[in-house]
Amino acid sequence: MTFHIDRFFALFLISLPLFTQAGERFSARETIPEADTITFGDKGPVSIAQDDSLMLRQIFDSDTFEGISEIDMAAPDILAVPDSVIQHRLKVLDARSPLSLEFNPEVRAYINLYLGKRREMVARMVGLSMYYYEIFESILDRYEIPLELKHLTIVESALNPKARSRAGATGLWQFMYSTGKMYNLYYDSYVDERYDPVKSTEAAARLLKRLYEDYGNWDMALAAYNYGSGNVNKAIARSGGKRNYWEVRDYMPRETRNYVAAFIAVNYIMTYYREHGIIPELPRIAYQQTDTINVKSLVSFDLLSKKLDMPIEELQFLNPAFKLDAIPYTPTRHYAIVLPSDKALEFAAQEKDIYQEAHQAEAALKKTLSYKATTTPGARGSVIYRVKKGDTLSGIAVRYGVTVSKLKTWNHLNSTKLSIGQRLTIYPRK
User: Fold this and answer.
1) What is the topology classification, in CATH, of domain 19-276?
2) Nearest to 75 by CA among 341, 278, 354
3) Which element (helix H / strand E) includes 300?
4) Which of 31, 185, 208, 328 fits a disulfide with 190 by CB distance 3.0 to 4.6 angstroms?
5) For 387-406, how does the pLDDT look when each residue is reduced to its tens digit (9 = 90+)?
6) What does the alpha-carbon distance between residue 246 and residue 20 come to, in Å, rounded to a whole number?
7) Whole-prediction pTM value?
8) CATH class of 382-426
């Protein structure tokens, strides 16, 4: 399917003031400290799950977004806001949503966490949402399911299209291999459509709609999305046949018990972040300012980056489904690439030259891609890591489960010396 987007739509987004860098960004797989127990007023401690969802552990890093804005951490934050205010705001959201967005201590604890310790993370996710949410909303609306479900991607992946859980769940919507196949997501050594924002959202919408039809309410549908229908059915049986999520949740694992509460909290923070002094990182490109081009030859991101004068990181951000930084081509399966609208016009103008150069480099490129596909576990795509103060090549290798020698090979390094700000291409172990 080819999408042609009006390049003049939503120019206001790009014209909004951009902000200066303040502090280090999280890398695509960098660990964020795990949440711990949070005290909720006089209710005592409330446990926040150390779960398999990536909300608390991963955040996407891309030069497509400006650096984190200056935030006065001494200013009054969410912890100073009375329960009554939070409760009232959630009532407003609940009144205009078919989902149940109720206030309780677990929801409050997650709100405290996201808008307290995770303020910078929220600023980045709000910026990411400015790009992704239009994609999600258009598809969810077509399937006639609540648009609020777009926020599920934050709980699942922190809006990181390359997120991968310990269990192997992958992409914005965290599809397992078998579930993705059930919903017609295609993957091979070069492509994984679980990473594709459009196609994975199509699959997620179909799955969510089916779960709602099975259980008759969205709380249980969300629990089944996280825990699996078979496991939820077992929990229902252990509860004596109850169908209300809050009555069944005690029969589910900790991750799923907290899943709906986290989702409700995310609905709150993504609506009321301004009221808590969160200044989002704005995207340098809006989804409306992109177009999709059908590619008629095997073409590398390196070649496109050179011919179109655009950073390879931007190509990776717009096209996360291509695991090896190249668009494959076969007689039976054709692929398309997403580009900024002005770069799409440049591609059309240079199409003949691009394909000519791609053809000349095809043999060498295939050899490189074959090496990547066979020497990186699971033929996974790369992540870009930015070196920070105190980093060593051996430490980075341990973090990503690879060897120092492979890091040197992938990045054409002659020594183990690193520079702050240096970017390393890494093919992480599963």
Assistant:
1) Lysozyme (1.10.530)
2) 278
3) strand 299-300
4) 328
5) 888 888 888 887 777 888 88
6) 44
7) 0.72
8) alpha beta
